[in-house]
Design goal:
Chain lengths: 288, 280
């Protein structure tokens, strides 16, 4: 009898949970474990080194710079993406002729991968032959170096990431906005509430959970950004686009220092969780 | 929302126009460039004119090149195959788990669900080092197993399914049980046929993840025969640096294929998200 009650859940859960244990939980634990050891090429042995990898990582100016770059990037790109995609979501809710067509057209770019986005913008931002400079020339602005300029590279990557991400996140906002009961808007209209008031007092409070979901998912994906550095800038110029994930990749595969890379991953994870926690508290996600 | 006044309407259309221009100009530029012969590629970029956006000497050479000379078709097929298998297996496996978390009582349920949520927070990229050495141990490097199997169990998709099944009417399950069906039969004959929207939105999450993945295929593929579409794209860029028209043609194909799949399903995608994920 008892067996029978367990049988169905066991059957349903085993494939997914087995996969999660083997391909997710085990590598996480292994990574945390590895971060406390160091492999010696001379003795061909692995030694327990305590927090040495963490100390090494956090005293390495290159890695510290990558933390700084990742933080600056996230502080700018997350609000920017959320703000624009929320605006796009609102814009696509407005009933005008062609609303349906606009929605479809705005949905199209979500299938542009980061690889494609980077390759395309790399060409457009080419300092000598790029289209972007031709456009700027029309307004009398001289050629810019964009990704080859220390001050412009990170803003350039922020622009590319925003261009690529906004449509995807707007999709979540649209489905959230669709769910707000229309009675609320009708009541507001009867009370004589203007569009700004309605937005501030009805739409935004109703969208709290969607906003929180998008902010958190967006933060996680931006903390792990790696493709622009790998494809476009190689972390440069002068480390200005050297993201943490790119440093981790280099340490793990180019310098073959897996133990140090594991410690860096744990550091990245701790920072990311702290940021996500702060966002949750700021946006009041706990009072659900 | 109320009917709009003339002025507001103009502002709305203006905003649409600006956004569409920003979003589509690069894509249109890529499309146009893919139809140009290589020597024309940079000829019309400056000064900006109408010819910047209309190919003067229209040719399909770039498309012929990438498919005949560089066997881009293999990469396309690889990506389609990997994504399709991941979607089918992933929807079934994660739907089963999501259903169990929503409708069954069993020991350690909270603990197990907590683990699922944590893996949802710890993305693939961060596990890649140890996952990669695991693939070496399994002998899966440069096989489809490495590209597909680790991507099938997905915490986010389990979560999406659980949220959906929490609202699944119990009386449907009870009726089926009275009819003498066991849980396995109930799942396939009652639950799955009523889960279209969530299956499609989860399937799209799984599909886009696979279609776009870059870091993982870089690590676990070696031979040209195993390259996925994004890797092939990047190797066009690194190996044949000068042939930008080919790169544009390949980009256009890499981005058009998912659109052909997504556009007909658009309605379900928005519905599926609404009824599940972002709302809890």
């Amino acid at each position: 009898m008892k067996w029978k009650r367990i049988a169905a859940p066991l059957l349903f859960l085993t494939p997914a949970m087995l996969g999660i244990m083997v391909f997710k939980v085990f590598p996480i634990l292994q990574g945390v474990f590895d971060s406390f050891f160091q492999y010696s090429f001379i003795n061909q042995k692995t030694y327990f080194t305590g927090f040495q990898n963490y100390i090494d990582a956090l005293t390495d100016p290159v890695f510290l710079n990558s933390i700084k770059v990742t933080m600056i990037f996230n502080i700018i790109v997350n609000p920017l993406q959320v703000f624009i995609s929320f605006g796009l979501g609102l814009l696509l809710m407005v009933k005008v002729k062609g609303q349906k067509a606009f929605r479809t057209i705005h949905l199209i770019p979500i299938t542009v991968s980061f690889t494609i986005a980077c390759i395309l913008w790399g060409v457009l931002m080419n300092p000598e032959q790029g289209l972007l400079n031709s456009v700027l020339n029309i307004f009398g602005i001289p050629n810019q170096q964009f990704l080859f300029d220390k001050a412009q590279a990170l803003p350039g990557v922020i622009g590319i990431a925003t261009w690529k991400g906004v449509g995807y996140w707007a999709l979540f906002f649209i489905s959230g906005l669709e769910e707000i009961p229309s009675q609320l808007y009708e009541a507001a209209a009867i009370d004589g509430s203007g569009p700004w008031n309605t937005l501030l007092h009805i739409t935004i409070p109703q969208m709290k959970r969607t906003v929180l979901f998008v902010v958190i998912s967006d933060t996680i994906s931006n903390f792990l950004l790696f493709v622009p550095a790998y494809i476009l800038t190689n972390g440069g110029p002068e480390g200005s686009t050297d993201f943490m994930m790119f440093e981790i990749f280099k340490n793990a595969y180019a310098y073959s220092n897996v133990n140090l890379a594991s410690a860096m991953i744990v550091i990245l994870l701790v920072i990311m969780l702290a940021v996500v926690g702060a966002e949750t508290m700021l946006l009041g996600g706990r009072d659900e | 929302m109320n009917r709009l006044k003339g002025k507001t309407k103009i502002v709305i259309y203006f905003l649409h126009a600006v956004l569409l221009a920003v979003v589509f100009l690069p894509l249109i530029f890529a499309l146009v460039s893919s139809f140009r012969p290589l020597e024309d590629l940079y000829k019309y970029i400056r000064p900006l004119s109408i010819e910047t956006f209309i190919p003067k000497n229209f040719t399909l050479d770039a498309y012929k090149d990438i498919f005949v000379k560089y066997r881009f078709g293999t990469s396309v097929m690889n990506s389609v195959f990997v994504a399709a298998v991941t979607v089918i297996a992933g929807v079934i496996v994660n739907a089963l788990a999501g259903f169990a978390f929503a409708k069954f009582q069993f020991p350690c349920k909270r603990l197990l669900f907590g683990i699922v949520l944590i893996t949802f927070m710890v993305p693939f990229e961060l596990l890649s080092i140890n996952l990669y050495s695991m693939m070496i141990d399994f002998g899966w490097v440069d096989t489809f197993f490495a590209l597909i199997v680790p991507s099938v169990p997905n915490g986010m998709v389990i979560f999406l399914f659980r949220q959906y099944y929490l609202g699944f009417p119990d009386y449907l399950l009870e009726t089926a049980k009275i009819d003498g069906l066991n849980w396995w039969e109930i799942f396939w004959r009652v639950v799955m046929p009523n889960s279209k929207a969530v299956c499609i939105s989860s399937g799209l999450v799984l599909f886009l993840n696979q279609w776009e993945s870059f870091l993982w295929p870089v690590l676990v593929t070696r031979s040209e025969n195993m390259q996925t579409i994004q890797i092939a794209l990047n190797s066009f860029r690194t190996q044949y640096t000068k042939e930008w028209n080919n790169i544009f043609a390949a980009s256009i194909i890499a981005f058009l294929i998912p659109i052909l799949i997504i556009l007909p399903l658009q309605k379900f995608y928005v519905e599926g998200i609404t009824s599940t994920g972002s709302k809890e």
